[in-house]
Records
---
Amino acid sequence: MSGQISLQDIESFSSTLGECIKSSFEKKDEVLETLNLVKKEANFTKDGEKTLNRLIKELSSDIEVSDLLDDSTFVELISLHCLIKLSEKVEATIKYKLGSTKFPDITIEDKEKNRYGFEIKRVGGDAILGNSSTQTVKNIDTFKKIYAISFFNDGDTIHISNYEDLIFDIEVDHNPRFRLKMQLEDKSNFKEIFSEGNLIDYYSLDQESREKLVANYLRKKYADNEDRWFLGQSTTIINEFLEQIQNIKLDREKIRTFVFCNYPAIFTFSNYHDLRKVIMKKYKYIGAVKDIFTAGGQENGFPRIYVHLITLLPQINSELEKSSINKSAWIKEIKDSVITASDLSPAKQKELFELVDKHIT
């Protein structure tokens, strides 16, 4: 890499980074080396490890780099490969965890401790959904800028832009998310949505303040009072939505109990998309479903999802008795699911199974 590069100035690095990404399509060995580096550093989630092993296996065969560009994880790794090269030029360090859902995907920290985020997007149309507009971004105040690296379906078009410049709307699927316009000639709507400030200023606000800004925008957007499932079904739809988004009053244990009873294979789920639809419909819940089960870290050697299962075993037993679910079949499916997930030590697995047998009678 040649020339002066400043991560503060997108013009100074975007063309260099774009050229590196495109040239990497012809440098299979270099890309494979990066994938093995990620594997060696064990910087991935369990699902990320499975994906990484698959990609290494495929790239080690006759498959070319360009053949894998429709894989969203692979384009993240291509971006990582070139950002590593860029970071060497600016004497910076890379922070990345394959399989993580945090925003932004990749962080570069320079020698002055300034941080720059890179969110990687696979683009199949003129507009796509971005990250949650109400999520908490850890240490956001330490970021100087957040950029987007967008890979288009033609396999040849790559845009590198300020993430904020792509934001033109907020939509709600399971929670409010930014909608990104992928044509760079279109003007960003960010300041129209939030009146002033920038993306980093916005995420630096406390969660309640961010949720109010989002709710105010959605109040204007749906001023026609058209019925929306996430806004309720009455003339006070906005107030109902504000209550949901600002102060979610919901019995999470009830949701967990329902899911553990009816979806005992949850421990093997690679994503929660289908489950999210069920919970949205049944409980009108618009938050992050996965967090209900996994947020909170380990306790006594058990990942949080198992802590919830253990805590709720008496309630689960009670619900199973009321239902038509066969307890023996349920116990077998739970145990098979835990064994398949293979994220517990043999001792912890044995301890869990003993608790299941004790409480599900």
---
Amino acid sequence: MSAVKIILSVILGLVIFLGVLAYLSSDALRSQFLSADFYTESLAENDAYLRFYDAVLIPRTQDQLDEEGRAYFVGGLRIDKEDVGALVKGILTPPELRRQVEAAIQGAVDYLNKEDDPATGEPIQVPQVYIEFRPIFGTRTPTPEGVTPVTGTAKPVLTRFLVKQLKNNIEVLPPVEGTLPEKIETLSRQLYDTLDQLQDPHFPIQVPSLAGIPAEARAGVYDGARAILIAGGLSPQSIQGLDEADGKIKEELLQFDPEDALVDALAAALVPLVEPLIDQSIDEFRTRQLDSQDRFDPIARIAENQNQSKSEVLRDLDKIRDWLERGKTYGSWGALLVIVVASIAMGLLHLPSLRSFIGWPGLTLLLSGGIFLAIAIALRTQLPNRLESFLEVGESGCDALAGDVTGISTALCEIGVDVTQSMATDLAASLLVPSIVVLAVGGALVLASFGLKRRSPAS
């Protein structure tokens, strides 16, 4: 065989190998990377949604507590760090977190695939990748036209938390002395202090003692405290709320046990008193972080951080998805064409020998398929052990990464490694069948060339 033929055979063999690589890559792009299931199934398999609370949401919320222990995500209330976890999981429930993440992934994949927008019938121009806060905060007041009112999870969770805190963290003041009218006047002032503190609750909280006050006289204590509270400049929202809760509050005050009566009455008054603080915190969060539909837009935030407009970022993304579409549409067929043409050229190079015409392309396909099959098997069998070793080595694994990269915790790194492992395993599984097909075609051609060789003496 001449040197020129050897060199051309090597070049054509490399072209065939690269063609097989391009075909497998295009197939993986279409079936894996541009499929939402590829990502969502890996997240679900590794329990990433629940682990995300401990890795990100809870510690980030704890870090946002200011000197007074306030956090905007939990309504601007003063809370202890140990209470953050239950509040965060109550406000943003695990099923809702999963729904939002999967919806964002689906929105990104639909955009990259240029799926049609149901509203216009045209390809999606803006990726529907948002974090929706309407299920958390509820609809705005007044409710925008055409929007179904939603209560949201934040207020009910926060008020239940505050009621529990109230009932478990009270300090009863000593009983007052004097005639009944004098007691009512003094207790009204003490109850006013309690109600005033409930507008921005901080526990433990001091409450007056109603011991020795007849049940029918307790309403007078509350009415006096309420009058002082309103005279002091109570918000119209709270006044309306107290008016609506008036019957419930006075009904609770009729209980036999005076301490239980007052605590339950305060629990009924708590919601209208603390609601303005929660609403103010939510409104501030909306103003700073959300769009008019109560959505956090990560693309707009990326554009802001890069001193760009959202339209500029979308133009860059459009270029990327144009290339992805070309790869998805033409990649597989183009790669097959390259493989076929290069194989025929290699065969023609070895004519007039028919067995070489078939054997050399077959051998090249056999080797290419074998190499990619070995890679796929190695990914499935060796990658988990490699990633486990990465996690176990603190100085060079997730502990080191968490120390070097701001915002990356060890727990978040471990989630990323586990999800990446699942995705790589799925990717390897997707390579097995096409690699076996290439291997089988190459093997068939090689066997056919051997058959021709055995029959040649009789010809």
---
Amino acid sequence: MPLRNTEQVIIRQALTNIAIKYKNQQYVADELFPIIDGVNKQVKVLKFLKAPWFRDEAGVRAEGTPAPVANLSVTTVDIDPVNYSIGTKVTDEMYKQTKVAGNLDVQCQKTAMEFMGDKLDIKKERNTSTLLHATDWSGAGAGGVDAEGHWGDSTAANDTFLADMKTGHDTIFAATGRKANSLFLSYHAYSKLRIGPALLAYLYPQGWTPGMFVTIDALKILADVDRVIVGGASYTATEETVADDSPTMTQIWGTTDAETKGVGFLFHRPDAASREIPSAGYQYRIKQDNGLARMGTQWREAANHQDAFDMQEDTDIVATATDLGYMWKDTATT
């Protein structure tokens, strides 16, 4: 019987200081609309009707007669937070694999909490995208105006981005007296704009080199807004059996929750929720028992030799002033 070659014996251990974790780098739903943290399950936002504030109704009062009367009318917008929750488990075997002598501890509990928080972020991102696309902003129809793929057009003369921004600004200002101060772009809308010849020529009239791009700060100036938000998160409904099993990824901010034609949304929002300050939308969250917007819970399932975790959040995202937004679809391609 030949002697065993000990050099071929490999004991495989999980490296706890190295791990490959796929996740979205950034979620932007919380940046779109101001957040109201409350305690009630169902609430109403008082909304003053617009016309009474713009009518010229003051008049000359004759001696001994009452002053002209203007009616201050109020309506409401319902907000109904829904409890979103997610759970996960960490087995004793997983704990053991990450605590091999000589290796660093992976902190399974912390990773489990991050994992569940990420799940709630994906849900909120998709809910906000659905609201954005389903709302008729400024009477342009749900989904927005068709830009016919002309933002960042390779033929500079065909680029409509600046003209479309003016249309959006003028429409919002004419209807509300408020200036739009924010621009949301899907990843594919932004990636085409950053190399658009017309915008580059506008920024660099003396000429530009291949290393020059339209930056976020430059887009703020071109679009005449205070903030530009780029949404590029993805999700999948595919079950993955092994790493790199090629799950089908879809763009959360696409018009149909999948396509990559480009989306733009010009809107007005205050820096923070405030009384009598209009906003295109608001997000309402209920404080949990721990005083925060989200609460995580952990318990032991001894029979299954594992720890169980869950996390929950009560939230609702609503469009509160559709005349404070203007939307485009198919900005990058048709």
